[in-house]
């Protein structure tokens, strides 16, 4: 076993009563979360409920204010950055566009955790880059500067960067933002196929509750920094959750085609 290979049965992520936030601004307290390897988890909740903060803490983009995050059984803050980047990739909710960078140059950066000491890309790196561009259907855009792309094309370029890392864990913060409905489904099906065919562990923040229910095995609903529901989509996506967590009156039915629960929100409860 190499140092990169996690032990069987060890969760991808484990937090024990951590606190998250920014300096003196505490977002969550006593947050205990385990994520099984090979699972698909959707994080949902109203604006400002702490979804991105949770994801950023798991990704080590911000440190927990208290407690420890374990990545594949190891304290994430004791792992070298390169090792973290070989195990997990994140598509953050917001990103700054490096001026003048082309799509290809951006996606190549996904290989940096893997390249050897000379820093040269090898054949397997080229394959990973090509595959990431193909999966995100960016073939026609490889030499375009990122800042000339539409919002949706740009979002797919950042997705390609995360995919090029070829990690066992993929964290996605609202990956369907800016995408039209066809590209939304394309991306969510791609994520599901990575999970099914390669066992990639997925944790994604999704705004669309029906997409969350259809494309995950587990939904975690947050409100005010707390986990208020956690379970299979049909346990979590209920009229009660929509009322208490999102403040809307809604019906929930079973989609006859996919078997997933779907909600129809009718009006805000004021
Ligand atoms: N960089 C930051 N500094 C200070 N507070 C922040 C920062 N980012 C987010 N927050 C605050 O943390 C809370 C949770 O935000 P966030 O996790 O982004 O929510 P969500 O992703 O669920 O919409 C909000 O009150 C937000 O204003
Ligand atoms: Mg967010």
How would you characterize the overall build of this protein?
With 270 residues, the protein is an alpha/beta fold. It has one domain (13-268): 3-Layer(aba) Sandwich (Rossmann fold), CATH 3.40.50.300. Helices cover 30% and strands 27% of the residues. It contains nine helices and twelve strands. The strands form three sheets. It has a six-stranded mixed sheet, sandwiched between helices. It has a four-stranded antiparallel sheet with strand order 2-1-4-5, covered by helices on one side. The chain has a two-stranded antiparallel ribbon with strand order 11-12. Helix 4 (123-135) runs antiparallel to helix 5. The structure holds adenosine-5'-diphosphate (ADP) and magnesium ion. Adenosine-5'-diphosphate binds at residues 22, 25, 27, 45, 47-53.
Outline the fold blueprint.
Blueprint (H helix, E strand, L loop, with lengths): L12 E10 L2 E11 L4 E5 L6 H8 L10 E3 L2 E2 L5 H7 E4 L11 H6 L14 H13 L15 H14 L4 E5 L7 H18 L2 E5 L3 H6 L3 E6 L2 E6 L1 H4 L2 H6 L3 E7 L6 E8 L2
Parallel strand pairs: 3-8, 3-9, 6-7, 7-8
Antiparallel strand pairs: 1-2, 1-4, 4-5, 9-10, 11-12
Helix pairs in contact: 4-5
The site of magnesium ion (MG) has 5 residues, from helix 1.
């Amino acid at each position: 076993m190499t140092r990169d290979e996690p032990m069987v049965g060890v969760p991808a992520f484990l937090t024990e009563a951590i606190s998250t936030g920014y300096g003196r601004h505490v977002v969550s307290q006593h947050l205990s979360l385990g994520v099984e390897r090979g699972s698909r988890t959707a994080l949902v909740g109203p604006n400002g409920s702490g979804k991105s903060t949770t994801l950023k803490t798991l990704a080590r983009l911000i440190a927990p204010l208290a407690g420890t995050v374990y990545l594949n059984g190891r304290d994430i803050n004791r792992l070298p950055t390169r090792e973290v980047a070989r195990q997990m990739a994140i598509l953050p909710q917001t990103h700054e566009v490096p001026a003048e960078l082309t799509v290809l140059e951006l996606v190549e950066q996904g290989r940096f955790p893997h390249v050897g000491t000379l820093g040269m890309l090898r054949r397997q790196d080229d394959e990973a880059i090509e595959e990431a561009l193909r999966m995100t259907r960016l073939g026609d855009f490889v030499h375009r500067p990122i800042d000339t792309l539409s919002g949706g094309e740009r979002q797919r370029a950042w997705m390609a960067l995360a995919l090029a890392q070829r990690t066992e864990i993929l964290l996605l913060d609202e990956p369907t933002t800016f995408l039209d409905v066809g590209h939304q489904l394309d991306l969510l099906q791609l994520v599901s196929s990575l999970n099914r065919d390669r066992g990639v562990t997925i944790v994604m923040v999704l705004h669309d509750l029906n997409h969350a229910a259809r494309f995950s095995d587990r939904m975690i609903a947050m409100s005010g920094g707390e986990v208020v529901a956690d379970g299979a989509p049909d346990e979590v996506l209920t009229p009660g959750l929509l009322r208490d967590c999102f403040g809307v009156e809604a019906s929930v039915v079973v989609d006859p085609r996919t078997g997933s629960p779907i909600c129809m929100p009718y009006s805000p409860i004021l």
